[in-house]
């Protein structure tokens, strides 16, 4: 069969088909048909677009799930670990804050205790000074009838030191003649020097009456130098004080030595106060610094003072003479 014959048969079948007959018999216009076709095409395109959107969305979701989800998961784990670390640090900071508050409270309490202790120590120091002064005063009072004799050769008193002194005091000190001095006891004291020292040990003796002790010291000053004729040595008589009072009086010796060449006549009164009279005015100094300031305020005697200061530094005998000063 030829090709033209086939085409003619197909055309004939189409023209004789019921649908073709129906279309010929219907009242549908060509415009309506074109519009229907266009609407069909739009619906088909819309369905294809919806299908395409679904496919794209699914593809994007799959891409996100395959790529971003692990990254987001790791990031979430890192954030969680960071949050845990921050929480731990926060807990540590809170503990440190509590510890710091406790330490601050402890420091405050310690500072308060220290302040209280300082007040207590200050009060105790004042009480100790008062008690020391009282003990020193009591010791000085217990020694007020004592006399220290320096320079008497060791062994000169024999076995009866008190009898030896009663027999010789009036010979050494003429002012004591006719005075009945009762000596309670007498003994040598160790002053810390080596046993082979050439200087004899000090002899301390105690008289019964304080008036006798004052008479001995006053008479010794008047009769200076008092000589022990047997060995031709100088005897020195001093009052006996406690170590504390003796140290205070000894600290005033340098300024006393400087006053004497200036024509001043200072003397010590108990416990350690320099007393003198200047231009008819009685003056008292309880420290060497105050006495030094007084000396410096005497311009007319400055040159004499400077010369005497240089001279006194090379003298040793003057120091012994000043120990006679007594209230």
TrEMBL record:
It comes from the Eukaryota. The keyword Manganese does not apply. The keyword Coiled coil applies. Residues 72-141 form a coiled coil. Keywords: Coiled coil. This is L1 transposable element RRM domain-containing protein. It comes from Sinocyclocheilus rhinocerous.
